[in-house]
Hints:
This protein is 41% helix and 15% strand. By secondary structure, the protein is of the alpha/beta class. It has a single domain (5-293), classed as Rossmann fold (3-Layer(aba) Sandwich). The strands form four sheets. A five-stranded parallel sheet has the order 1-2-3-4-9, sandwiched between helices. A three-stranded mixed sheet has the order 10-7-12. Strands 5-8 form a two-stranded parallel sheet. Helix 1 packs across helix 7, helix 2 (41-51) packs parallel to helix 4 and helix 8 (221-232) crosses helix 10 (283-293). It is globular, with a radius of gyration of 19 Å. The relative contact order is 0.15. It comes from Pseudomonas xionganensis. This is dTDP-4-dehydrorhamnose reductase. Keywords: NADP, Oxidoreductase. Pathway: Carbohydrate biosynthesis; dTDP-L-rhamnose biosynthesis.
Amino acid sequence: xxxxxxxxxxxxxxxxxxxxxxxxxxxxxxxxxxxxxxxxxxxxxxxxxxxxxxxxxxxxxxxxxxxxxxxxxxxxxxxxxxxxxxxxxxxxxxxxxxxxxxxxxxxxxxxxxxxxxxxxxxxxxxxxxxxxxxxxxxxxxxxxxxxxxxxxxxxxxxxxxxxxxxxxxxxxxxxxxxxxxxxxxxxxxxxxxxxxxxxxxxxxxxxxxxxxxxxxxxxxxxxxxxxxxxxxxxxxxxxxxxxxxxxxxxxxxxxxxxxxxxxxxxxxxxxxxxxxxxxxxxxxxxxxxxxxxx
Length: 294
């Protein structure tokens, strides 16, 4: 790798997966520790003025964007301002910017897979914040790659997967929607995709733009939950036996979570040669890491 790579957010689950995968291929990242209060416009300005990397992967707010149960509108607004400054700095210093986003920028009203050509229409505050992040990146830093991921699954104890497994230990009854669909995407697979994109950017390929990626085989949240429990029982015995089916409309998060969140991944394949990987194959390693942490 000829480019000097910077990773903001190297301590979170996706950042750690990217560092692990890079190390296997002798690809290193400059992963600065954030200030006590987190990255803000002033600290980002000082960082990039001093370091001047060739490419930057921005996972600084990964947990809030993809895993947290709830984030305030004020916090999202602060992060948007910081990303806008980051994008301006990347443009000024000619740094390639790779920015993750999400299926949440769509409203989930259509049953067919969303492509990069479809107009975003987010439902809730998180989706609106992610769309605002995309807009400031496009406006401020034309040399960007925006990667919209499907349902990201990681091994953090208080992430989406962790909260589900804790309920599976604690609750007598557990329900998931059988009419809500998406692309489960383990973080190891998401890291593989990010690294593959960086390799092509390292060849000076001007492949800027927005791309979709999600694990192979779109499925329902109910089927995903059943598959997770089936694998988890091999590592941890005290889990609920069955999950009940529930309609998307009856779920507490139906006003914010898209019912149909399947992403079409043709563009990323035709541009970068990245093939979707079956999400089921990533569950054993993911769950092994989760139970080692808890």
